[in-house]
Write a structure and sequence with these properties.
With 293 residues, the chain is mostly helical. The protein contains 14 helices and 2 strands; from the N terminus they run αααααααβαααααβαα. The chain starts with 10 loop residues before the first helix and ends with a helix. It is globular, with a radius of gyration of 19 Å. It has a two-stranded antiparallel ribbon with strand order 1-2.
Length: 293
């Protein structure tokens, strides 16, 4: 009863506030976006990344006349289930988990579990759906809505992700245009920002990138990609980019993989020890659960 929406606090406003007050959200500030072993307070943390995604998505959503409260709630919750050490950590945990259970770990599915099961925040279906469908690793030029309309179907989708892995993850589509906007905004928010962090960390220099913009690419990308999405989505029943805009987004992301992600510390010198760490922590926590502690 206490979760009934009111004029002052509509359902999606409540969702966003519930997420902000979760311990799991607060812990995002201890997880860096890409670079985990740099003693630099200015390297992007996941808490900031979620806010940046929300900012980009709100700019697009406002122009398209969408529900900004829903957009904000999805953005705030989309990474609360992410591992430390970024996508390398996600891969290491997935290997440990799959080896022992035959199931698959993905941070977007875990984010739903954190919100809906571990903390039991009783969030709206649209928010949970946007969170599980956000995965910015699967870029698309056009995002169509799924037509999902009930918790029973959603629960089956979640179960399928745990059991089938990428086969199910790759088919995910948001049920709302707001979820579509957050999904494309995830990539827009990190593709230039991660470049700035890489330059700050000394991994690459300003002249390393093919477009010649260096760290200034972030400002260019935020403006250009937001405008592109709005221009190609206004008045339509989907969220889309132009062929040129989408090609540039894919190019920039591919260049990040070549020059940043595959050579970052967690994927090079530290890969072995961090991978072993995940296995040790997994077994430790599993033993604690068995002992009831």
């Amino acid at each position: 009863e206490r979760d009934r929406d009111t004029i002052l606090r509509p359902a999606f406003v409540r969702d966003g506030e519930k997420i902000l007050h979760m311990p799991a959200y607060n812990r995002l500030n201890g997880k860096t976006q890409v670079f985990s072993f740099r003693p630099d307070d200015d390297i992007t943390r996941r808490g900031l990344h979620e806010q940046l995604v929300g900012r980009v998505a709100r700019d697009i959503g406002r122009a398209l006349g969408l529900n900004l409260d829903l957009i904000e709630a999805i953005a705030l919750g989309h990474d609360v289930g992410h591992t430390p050490f970024g996508h390398a950590g996600e891969r290491f945990l997935n290997e440990v988990f799959h080896e022992r259970t035959g199931r698959w770990f993905f941070h977007n599915v875990q984010s739903v579990r954190v919100l809906d099961v571990i903390y039991g925040r009783n969030l709206s279906l649209q928010t949970l759906d946007g969170v599980i469908c956000h995965n910015g690793e699967f870029e698309q030029q056009v995002f169509e809505t799924s037509g999902l309309n009930g918790f029973d179907t959603f629960d089956r989708v979640v179960k399928g992700c745990w059991e089938s892995g990428e086969e199910a993850i790759g088919r995910l589509r948001p049920m709302t245009l707001e979820g579509c906007v957050v999904r494309v905004s995830d990539i827009i928010a990190y593709v230039g920002k991660d470049r700035q962090d890489a330059i700050r960390a000394g991994l690459v220099d300003e002249s390393a990138f093919d477009d010649g913009l260096g760290g200034a690419y972030n400002a260019w990308a935020l403006s250009a990609f937001v405008a592109d999405v709005v221009e190609n989505s206004v008045g339509r029943t989907n969220v889309a980019m132009s062929e040129e805009g989408f090609a540039e987004l894919r190019r920039a992301k591919r260049e990040n993989y070549e020059k940043i992600y595959r050579s970052s510390e967690v994927n090079s010198d530290f890969a072995g020890p961090v991978q072993e760490l995940f296995s040790v922590v997994y077994e430790h926590e599993l033993d604690a659960l068995r002992e009831g502690s």
